[in-house]
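Case study 2.
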Amino acid sequence: MGRVAKKSSNSSLHGDNSPAKLRQRRTGSKEVAETATPSGIVPQEDSKKKWKNWRQRTIFTFVMIGGFFTVIALGPLSIMLMVLCLQVLIYREVISLSSVPKKERDLPWARAMNAYFLGCLEYYLYGQNIHRALKRHPWLEAHLQPVFAHHTFISFSMYLLGFVWFVSTLRKGYYRFQMGQFAWTHMALALVVMQSQFMIENIFEGIFWFFLPIALVIVNDIFAYVFGFFFGRHQLIELSPKKTWEGYIGGGLMTMAFGFMLTALLSDWKFMVCPPPNLHMTAFSHVQCEVNPVFVPREYAVPYPLASLLSVVLRRQISTVLIRPVQFHSLAISAFASLIAPFGGFFASGVKRAFNIKDFGNSIPGHGGVTDRFDCQFIMAAFSHTYFTSFIKVSTVTVGSVFSAFLTLTPDERKEVFENIQEYLQLYGSLDTATIAMTTGA
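Prediction:
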C-alpha cells in the first residue's frame, strides 16, 4: 500500500491519463530511440521520412510567414489581436501538460480557475495598452479616467477574488495536486503571458521593434535547420538531439548578415519606424513623424587597411561609408537571437522531456504545437524591449502624456496650470489679447 501511495503522489502533476502521457504513448518508440543515441552524435533518421518532414515543414513555414506579413500589413490592432491569440493558445498548451482528467472530474472548477487567472492578467496588461492608445484621444480618455485611475487596484482585486476562490476549493486528498496546479498556472502566466507582453510594448515604440526581433528568430531557426539538415554532424546539446553545432554557427552568421541588411531596407519606411499614431493604421496609411536619430544615416570613416583592400578590389578609393546607427544595434540584437534565444527553445525541450512528450501539440503540421514555434520568441521580445529602452529610446513628452497628467490634477490645480500657460503664451506673443478674451469669456 505504501508503495502504491508513493507512486500516486509522485505522478500527481502528470497522471497516467494526462494528455502528456497519451502523446508519449503514441510517440514512445521514437523517444526511446532518441534517448538511446550516444552523446555527441546526431541521431540518424530514415531518409524517406526525413525528406517528407522537410517538405511538410517547408510548406507550413511559408504559410506562417505569409500570414505573419499579412498581420503586419494590417497594422497595430491586428498585431495585438494576434499576440493575444498566441498567448491564449500557448497558455492552453502549457496548462494541458499538467492536466489529469481523472482528478479534474472531482475538482470541477480547476479549468475554470486557470481561465480566470488568465483573464485577470490579460485585463491588467491590455487595460494598460488601451490607456496608452487613448492618450492620443484626450477627450475619450477623460471620460474613462476614473477606470484608468484605479486600473491597478481593480486588477489586483480581481486576482484576490481568484485567490480566495482557489483556497475555498481545496479538498482533502487533493492538496498536493491542487497546489501543484496553482504553481504551474502562475509559472505559465509568468513565462508565457507576461513575457509576451513585451511584444505589445515594442509595437508602441514602432512596428519595426516588433517585427525585427521576431524576423531574426525566424531566420535563425530556418538557417539553423538548413545548415543542420545538410551539414550537421556534431550534437549541440543533449536536451535537443537534432540541434547541431553546424546549424548553430551557420544560422548565427546568416542571421547577423540578414539583420544588418533588413534594417537598412526598413529604415526609410515610416509605417515601420514611427510610433503608431493610432491603432487602425495600416501599411497603406500615410504616416509621418520625427524618426528616432538611429534611423538617420551617418558617415563613418573606413579603416585604412580595409580602405586599401576595397580600392584594389573595386578599383576606386573609398574612405567613408553611410551607415545607419540602427544597423549596428541590429548586430547586437541578431547576436542575441542567434546565441541566447535558442536556449528558450532548449528550455522548452527540457519541459517536454520532463513530461515525456515529443511536441506541445500537433496544430502546425511539421512543426508541432504553437508553443514549439514560439518558444524562443518570448525571451527575444523581453531582450529587445530591454535593449531598446536602455540604448535607443529617446525620452519625449507628447501632448497626450501631458494631457493625461493634467487629468490627474484637482480642479484648482488645473485652473492654475491653465492660467500659467495662458500667461506664458501671452508673454512670448503666442497668444493675443483677443484670443484671451474669447477663452475667458470676457
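Strands lie at 235-237, 240-244, 298-301, 320-323.
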